[in-house]
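In this section we walk through a basic example: taking a raw amino acid sequence and producing a predicted 3D structure, encoded as discrete structure tokens. The instruction is simple. Fold the sequence below.
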Amino acid sequence: MSKTSVNARLAMIQAFASFIDNGSQSATVIFYEGVQPASPVVAADSGNTLVALTFPEPCIKETTTAYVELHPTDTATVIKAGTATWARIYNGAGEVAADLAVGTDIALANTNLALGGTLSITSIKLRP
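The resulting token sequence is shown next.
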């Protein structure tokens, strides 16, 4: 489909947000340094993990006609110093939901993460 209505795109985002809540665990977003894999089916290099953040359940905070907003994540401790270049969202079943490029798809106040520092995401809005 090359052109879809805003309502159709919003429905797709709502389905994506619901997919994130699937599973018995909470959804997570993990930030990595290094090169982002070419596809979400390619395993991430666990040696490049900087920090893992956890969403509350359910993760959907609000659905509007313009976006789906997720609840903020917890605050987690950075386990490795490095520059966050990409992030991967996993649903509650441990399945990959999406890969995000830092700076393009997701913004951080500071991409240089210090060992022992903390990170949280206060606002995530998925827009059609």
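Looking at the output, two observations stand out. The radius of gyration is 15 Å. Helices lie at 6-21. In the next section we compare this with other chains.
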